[in-house]
Amino acid sequence: MNYPEWDESVSDRAIISEFYDQLLKRYPEVREDIEFNEGLLHLDMASLQRVAEKLCKERKLAELESCFLWVNSLFCRSRNELLNAINVSFLECFLYSPYLSKQEFKNAMPPELYQGYEEIMSYIEELGKQSISQ
Fold first, then answer.
1. What total of structural domains would you count in the chain?
2. Which of 63, 66, 89, 123 sits at a 20 to 30 Å CA gap from 55?
3. How buried is 64 (Cβ within 10 angstroms: 0-12 exposed, 13-18 middle, 19+ buried)?
4. Which pLDDT score, from 0 to 100, does residue 27 have?
C-alpha cells in the first residue's frame, strides 16, 4: 500500500461510507456511541480508537493487528476528511503503553500506519518545544 497524500480537492465520501458499513459489523460494541454521535466522523473514529486501546490493554494482539490492518486499508486510500480523522482521532491520542512495548506496538501496525503515528508524535513533540520556547 502507498502512504497517503493530503489532497483537499478530493472527497473521501466513498471510503467514509465503507468505514461506516464495516465499523458496526467489526465492532458492534460501539453501536451506542456511534448512534449517539450522529455521524460525527472524528467522534466515531475516537470510538474505534478506544476499542483498539482496549485490545492493547487486554493484549489481544491478533485482534489488534486485524484492527490496524483495517484502519491502514482506509488510511492508505484516504486523502481528505477520513485521513484527518485517522490522524487526529485515532493515531494522535493512541496510548499503547504500559500494556505493550514500543516494539510490540510497531509490530502490530502496518508500516504505513506506523509511519503516520510516528509523524503525528513528532509533530506534537515539535509543537511542545515551540510552546516552551515562546
1. 1
2. 123
3. buried
4. 98
